[in-house]
User: Fold this.
Amino acid sequence: MPIRCTCAAAAERARELYGHLENQDVWITFSYAPNGCYRGRLRISKDRPGYILLDRGEADYNRVGHIDQIVYAATHEEHTRARAIRCAQSYRT
Assistant:
């Protein structure tokens, strides 16, 4: 298990990378679940620097991950648009 940085630099990096998505409806894929894509409201953790919380409406279904574990993050609109393009391309072949 890699050592995760939980210092002020990690908090700043989280804000740099995902601050523009905070409090928005997003889709996220984590490296520990590469075949899953989770939807929820993105929150940057203040208690755990370098971590994000994906608020899915119920505490039992929320997801927490370190920013190094995020392999995909997009707003709901971006994700839906990209998915529609992939579907349209698959019908052409």
